[in-house]
Design goal:
Blueprint (H helix, E strand, L loop, with lengths): L1 E9 L9 H14 L3 E3 L4 E4 L2 H15 L5 E9 L7 H19 L1
Antiparallel strand pairs: 1-3, 1-4, 2-3
Helix pairs in contact: 1-2
Length: 105
């Protein structure tokens, strides 16, 4: 399965609203998990089996808790049994489709 998630504290007391230290703590959990992952400016994607992925999401959420009075979690999952390598595979297929369309223009 692929899971895209974003976790951030609120009630941090930071005047500028910055949450980068908290996000860094969550991303460290993801990186230490050993699962395939990718972090962008808005989400972290992680790939693996149901139990291992949700364990990482839970631990990443727990890592953010000390940074604020509450934590928000946004999560989207692509559950496709029998498939792996989809973190890159979906992007590869997208790029191929764009190239084919460009060739027909």
């Amino acid at each position: 399965m692929l899971v895209a998630f974003s976790v951030a504290p609120s009630g941090t007391g930071n005047a500028d609203g910055s949450v980068h230290d908290a996000v860094a703590a969550a991303v460290r959990v993801v990186r230490d998990s050993g699962l395939p992952h990718r972090t962008t400016s808005m989400f972290t994607e992680i790939e693996g089996e149901w139990d291992e992925v949700f364990d990482v999401v839970r631990r990443a959420t727990e890592a953010v808790q000390p940074y604020g009075s509450r934590v928000g979690l946004v999560l989207k999952a692509d559950i496709r049994p029998g498939y792996s390598g989809e973190l890159d595979g979906k992007i590869d297929r997208l790029e191929s489709a764009i190239e084919r369309q460009d060739d027909t223009d």
